[in-house]
Amino acid sequence: MVSRILNNDPRLRAREDTRDRVKAVASQLGYMPNHAARALRLSHAETVSLVVPDATNPIFSEMFRGVEDEADIAGLQVLLGQSLDLRPDSNLLRRLVDQGRVDGFVLQVSARQEVHEAEQAIADRVPVVLIHARGQRRGSVILDDEGAAQLATEHLLALGHTDIAMVSGPVPAQTASRREKGYARAMSEAHVRRRPTWTVKAGYSPEAGRQAARHLLSKPRRPTAMVVANINAALGVLKGARESKVSVPDELSVVAIHDTWLATTTFPELTTVRMPLYQMGREGVRQLIARLSGQRPEDVVITDPPPVLVERESTAEAPRRR
Amino acid sequence: MVSRILNNDPRLRAREDTRDRVKAVASQLGYMPNHAARALRLSHAETVSLVVPDATNPIFSEMFRGVEDEADIAGLQVLLGQSLDLRPDSNLLRRLVDQGRVDGFVLQVSARQEVHEAEQAIADRVPVVLIHARGQRRGSVILDDEGAAQLATEHLLALGHTDIAMVSGPVPAQTASRREKGYARAMSEAHVRRRPTWTVKAGYSPEAGRQAARHLLSKPRRPTAMVVANINAALGVLKGARESKVSVPDELSVVAIHDTWLATTTFPELTTVRMPLYQMGREGVRQLIARLSGQRPEDVVITDPPPVLVERESTAEAPRRR
DNA sequence: ATGAAAGCGCTAACAA
DNA sequence: TTGTTAGCGCTTTCAT
User: Fold this and answer.
1) What separation, in Å, do the N-terminal and C-terminal C-alpha atoms of chain B show?
2) pTM of the prediction?
3) Where are the domains of chain A?
């Protein structure tokens, strides 16, 4: 009775003054429902888990906030897990489910395979919403990676560049192939020839970016611009360029996808494409909640707001042809 | 009975074969105790909360791992909170306590004041262990900041520098004053005169570091080396130096405290002092658990392992006197 | 329209 | 040494 009033049960018929009286007393007593008792009675944990490869990657910052905000609205707790910490043998995720500690997952798989196994193990027990990747027959939310890469490439094209390389992600990453597609699209729409050897599968780490840059800059014919699929890799590209004695942006323009605080710490500051990571986090939880109440999995693409170019110092007009 | 066997209650006398039988059946059934029921019965959440100013600061990475590892051993869940997200009016922390969702906090206060209020509100309801700062009459764990700064300074001294500046932290940060002390100690032990204007209170952000560097490098008499109290600020110092057309390490050596993956992404790579952040995280939880079982607050300094100098490319021998 | 009571899964106290 | 049971605080069904 009291419980239903406090939880604003719409199906309950109660006199207005009773409602008020109950609520008044409750707030006077500073009443707060005990979480464990609720969880036990309702047999759900009111907790969701966000699992990302590395929680301290600034790219996750915004997404994490989105997840937290949306969860907070629904009165859900969020447990942060790092998938890189998951040993193949440690079925941490499974244990969480078995103990009834979490109701579902928002999961970003890393390039490593192990997580997929963990995912398998939990997927038929509780709902899982995939982030940054489509799965088979489960919910997912991804960004407009293709549009972002296209935007980045068009920016370089507009500056007069035609010798544009792409430093892409690792092979298993779906984001990588979508971003490659956006790059390719922009190039062909501008009728600019694309050299196959100028698209290099690197990785999303500074070291991978550095090696890719050095590789591309060691060729007899150098690109004058690079679209880098990930800002952390771009940090490495900047470094590789410097080591190759190539000046950014005078001799080489660099645009990266994702905009974090690191973009303004470099010299020159990085031109980037900002992605709606916050919204992705919110949508992930929203969808998980929907699944929890019985709805079917959806695959959504966040298009609002769209990717936006943040012009800084690492891009400039194409150098004159020698 | 069964419960006590599974929880390995040492005070229980039971026949060996009964124990085995119970355990065998339990594992065969894949039995896992329900978390909510335990929490309700035991009236504690088996959850601790780690609150840091900004969870995506790489400096917290290791500490977070330490917290997770120690919590995992004790079967505790960890809830990550960001104190920067805490609006003064939002008593999120308080709500967590009122709902019985967390048993205690490992709390790193930011320079901002608000958190202290939040802290006040929760401190007499559940135990709080402070990180990076001493509090009055509550547990705390800090690092050997003085030793770290001294080590950094001695490294510069050993390279022949005498014109050494200190880019310190914001005034309210206890870490800042401890690090200043270490710098001062190294200087006076080496009988090197310390200019008061060369110790500048900046902040732990790249922008603060950049401004401090530009300020110091705009003086008629420039330092040839800087001890930077925080690696993120050091990112800005590197940038400020470049903007001031001062070459690192040829004209200016830079050492920073804390060693994160960012240290190798810069050009030149940063020489740093690595701090035992992982151990600090573990100790924080260990102490919180002790408090939960009734022990009194302690103030501990992590000295094992000690701070260690990681020499990279941003420090070099002092330039010859003009 | 409101009050009473059962029961979620566990642990600890008590009986046998 | 082992089995039985009350009760943690909540929600929800069933009486009133």
Assistant:
1) 83
2) 0.91
3) 2-141+276-299, 145-275+308-321
Could you say which residues from 237 to 296 on chain A have a Cβ atom under 8 Å away from some Cβ of chain B? 238-239, 242-243, 261-262, 264-267
Homologous superfamily of the B2-141+276-299 domain (CATH): Response regulator (3.40.50.2300)
- CA closest to C1' of D13 belongs to A1
A145-275+308-321 and A2-141+276-299 share a CATH fold = yes
Per-residue pLDDT of chain A (322 residues), as tens digits, is 688 888 887 777 777 878 888 888 888 888 889 999 999 999 999 999 999 888 888 898 889 989 999 998 898 999 988 766 655 556 778 888 999 999 999 998 876 555 566 677 777 789 999 999 988 778 999 999 999 999 999 999 999 999 999 999 998 889 999 999 999 999 999 999 999 999 999 999 999 999 999 999 999 999 999 999 999 999 999 999 999 999 999 999 999 999 999 999 999 999 999 999 999 999 999 999 999 988 999 999 999 999 999 999 999 999 876 5
- Find out whether A226 and A164 touch, Cβ atoms under 8 Å: yes
B7: nearest nucleotide, CA–C1' criterion: C11
| Top CATH class, A145-275+308-321 | alpha beta
* CB-contacted nucleotides of strand C (7 Å): 1-5, 7-13
Q: What's the per-residue H, E or C state across A75-99?
A: CCEEEEEEHHHCCCCCCHHHHHHHC
C-beta separation of B55 from B62 below 8 A: no
Reading the block at residue A121, the tokens are: 């193990």
